[in-house]
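The instructor's notes for this session suggest beginning with a concrete chain rather than abstract definitions. Hand out the sequence below and ask the class to guess, before any prediction is shown, which regions might be ordered.
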Amino acid sequence: MQKQVVGTGLQIIGRLSPRLAGRLAFGLWRRPLARGRVRSAEQAVHDAARAETVDGVATYAWGDGRRPVLLVHGWRSRASRYAGFVTRLLELGYSPVSYDAPAHGDSEGDVVSILGHQRIIRALEERHGPFEGVIAHSLGVPFALYAVREGVAAKRMVMISGVADFGYLADAFCAELGLGPKINRELRRSIERGYFDGDDQVWTRFSVTTGEIELLVIHNDEDEVVDPGQARVLLRNYGPRAHFLPTTGLGHRRILADPAVITEAVAFLQDADVPSDVPSDIPEGLDLSA
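After discussion, reveal the predicted structure:
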């Protein structure tokens, strides 16, 4: 109901001034509104981390420091959501590293752009890296992919329920609130001005491009937050080094705690060669367009 009221209000304002509606939409778009709390099932793993706060950013490290693996969370989430991954990685001798994004979890400050996340990830690499692997979820996917593209070292990557097309962030927001193309256009302009000094090329610059590191894409056919069609975009744009693992019935959030997903993801990081049972493309007949 609240979304309907907000959407209707922006639609009315947009009829009079699309620019004003776009600015108001931007104010909503960039605020998580709620902070994820540590869940009871995550508490022991969370408490076991070596936690530090650097420039307001809460960082976490587990293990002895050898074979570090970076974990990047998504919108309204936090590092503790990777508790199952942390446990499995520690069992296999890896050292997980993560952080709560600004304005998320235990981190201070305001939401930062993909460039802000690049700087945080670079700082973590300087302290803990180079990384054996990178695992990212949801909005963390474009953040992680861009950081690696810009020079952060990783041997392999696993991208779960991720956004591949940067413009999807504006399009999905507008679709959810019933906002038309004029407000969408003004929202994009507000994003460009608010975070990127007016650069209108960010929609291409921060979308997935061809990669050279072996990548496993995991998405769910019932993802209610990120359209499963984004997996198709990611696979196509990243190229032949991207491989696909479909899942069913897990949605957007439960996928991160699913034991089978954790096992497959970590096994992919371990393998020197792409495992024979992980297809390199979307299986024939699988519909990811819905």
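Then share the key points. Residues 46-165+208-281 form a domain with the Rossmann fold fold (CATH 3.40.50.1820). The two ends are 24 Å apart (CA to CA).
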